[in-house]
Design brief:
- The complex is a heterodimer of chains A (about 250) and B (about 240).
- Chain A is mainly alpha-helical and about 250 residues long.
- Chain A is about 80% helix and about 0% strand.
- Chain A is rod-shaped.
- Chain B has about 240 residues and is mainly α.
- Chain B is rod-shaped, with a radius of gyration of 46 Å.
- The chains are: A mainly alpha (about 250), B mainly alpha (about 240).
């Protein structure tokens, strides 16, 4: 019986039993039937057990798989919700940063404008004081208390000072004053600037470039200075030689 | 016919079967079984007649590509998987009852053939029932192996899903940390933004104050200038 399960049967006992029952066909028949029933039961039980185990594993695994799928769907939904909240919050933070920067800039602009207005106020008040003095002096001159010369001598300096102040102030604000901060000045000079480190991305490379270019500039300047010194030394030596020769020839 | 004292996995009774049922195949035009009408060829089996791992892999991959084993994560996919599991049990029970019937018949025919006065029973019956028993036994074994292979695939998919869930969980935790950080920025900047607003309002007030002074001094200058002109004209 190939392909059927192997059932362990004690063949020696079985033969003995069959031999003993040979003379009693009925009992032999009953014995064979009971053996047959046992074999049938063992085979079918083993088959059922095996598939029950396998099927049980399948049910458990599919349950776990379904649970994981459900969990993944829930996680996906949660992840989408978190993403949308994150996006919204990122926008809020960006808006907040922009508002802060805008407020800072507006403050700077207002401060500059106020400084400018105060400066103008100073000039206006100076003009007012000058006018008041001019009115007083004119009144005195009209009343004949002071002469024309004194009148001119008193009014002219006031006029010059006021004019000079207006011109200087306007030039200073237009040329030298920092356009962003009222209290700062722009310095324009002939000297070489100190290289400011670049803090933007790639700053290390930029730093190295700046440092190497600065080194290059120094070495170039040093070389040119040395050349100049050499040149002047050579020239003075040649001149000295010429003088000595001229001296000798004159002797 | 002997019935086991323990509850059988399949509830179908073999008493309702006849010999014609032994050649029937599970499934109809709507519901197909996992096993084909013809048994798998011997090239798929080893020396014991059991399906090899390679052939099982091929068979199960074929099921996946045909959509018999659903891999989709939606509700329809999950329902299909449940139906597949139920159908596997039905198919097993279908062949199991036929196997038990043919085995019983085989043992009965062997007994009759060897009983005294039973020489008339031909070996033909024994051979017939033996063939049926072997065939159904092979089908049951194949089905058990295929079920096991499906379980392994589902187990692999489950562990892959578990890994994916772990990664998603990690990403979500990072996002939660970022959200917490952003929240701290937002809450800390609330006071700052109010202060900035008030600073801007203060500078606007200062500017208005200065404007008023400018207007005043402009007026005074105009008046003083007019007075000067008047005094100068009256003097001349």
């Amino acid at each position: 019986m190939s392909g059927l399960d192997q059932i362990q049967i004690d063949s020696t006992d079985l033969l003995k039993k069959i031999q003993s029952l040979k003379n009693n066909p009925r009992e032999l028949q009953q014995f064979i039937q009971s053996q047959q029933a046992t074999i049938y039961k063992d085979i079918t039980l083993k088959k059922d057990d095996t598939f029950q185990k396998v099927y049980g594993n399948l049910e458990n695994t599919s349950g776990a798989y379904t649970t994981q799928l459900t969990q993944r769907n829930q996680y996906d939904k949660l992840s989408n919700t978190i993403d949308s909240v994150y996006k919204q919050q990122s926008e809020d933070v960006t808006d907040l940063e922009n508002t802060k920067n805008l407020a800072n800039r507006k403050y700077e602009m207002n401060e500059w404008t106020i400084g400018n207005k105060k400066d103008t106020l100073f000039v206006y008040s100076m003009i007012f004081i000058g006018l008041c003095i001019a009115i007083l002096v004119s009144l005195l001159w009209r009343m004949g208390i002071i002469g024309t010369t004194l009148f001119v001598v008193l009014n002219a300096p006031i006029l010059i000072i006021i004019t000079f102040t207006i011109v200087y102030r306007s030039q200073y604000t237009d040329v030298f004053r920092n356009k962003r901060y009222w209290n700062r000045r722009i310095f324009k000079g002939e000297d070489r600037k100190i290289p400011i480190p670049n803090i933007c991305p790639g700053s290390i490379n930029a730093l190295e470039r700046d440092a190497s270019s600065f080194r290059g500039d120094i070495s170039t300047d040093t070389a040119s200075i040395m050349n100049k010194v050499k040149k002047s030394t050579t020239q003075s030596a040649t001149a000295m030689n010429a003088d000595i020769v001229a001296g000798i020839n004159s002797m | 016919m002997v019935s086991s004292s323990r509850m059988s996995f399949c509830s179908t009774d073999t008493k309702t079967l006849t010999d014609t049922d032994l050649s029937s195949i599970y499934g109809n035009s709507v519901n197909h079984g996992l096993l084909t009408a013809d048994p798998y060829p011997t090239s798929y089996r080893d020396t014991n007649g059991v399906l090899t791992n390679k052939s099982l892999e091929t068979i199960v991959k074929g099921f996946v590509s045909q959509g018999v084993i659903p891999m989709k994560s939606d509700e329809a996919g999950q329902n299909k998987l449940q139906k597949l599991i139920t159908s596997i049990k039905e198919e097993y029970c279908f062949y199991d009852t036929r196997y038990k019937y043919s085995l019983q018949k085989l043992l009965d025919s062997i007994q009759k053939a060897n009983a005294p006065g039973g020489e008339g029973q031909s070996d033909h019956n024994v051979q017939t029932y033996l063939q049926y028993t072997q065939r159904h036994n092979q089908r049951i074994n194949d089905l058990t192996q295929i079920t096991n292979a499906i379980t392994q695939i589902l187990s692999e998919k489950t562990s892959q899903l578990s890994d994916a869930l772990q990664k998603t969980n990690t990403v979500m935790l990072e996002r939660a940390k970022k959200l917490e950080y952003q929240n701290s920025i937002l809450s800390s900047h609330e006071a700052g933004s109010k202060l900035n607003k008030q600073i801007v309002q203060f500078t606007e007030e200062k500017a208005r104050y200065t404007n008023n002074l400018l207007k005043l001094y402009s007026f005074l200058n105009i008046v003083a200038l007019g007075l000067l002109v008047y005094v100068y004209r009256s003097a001349s």
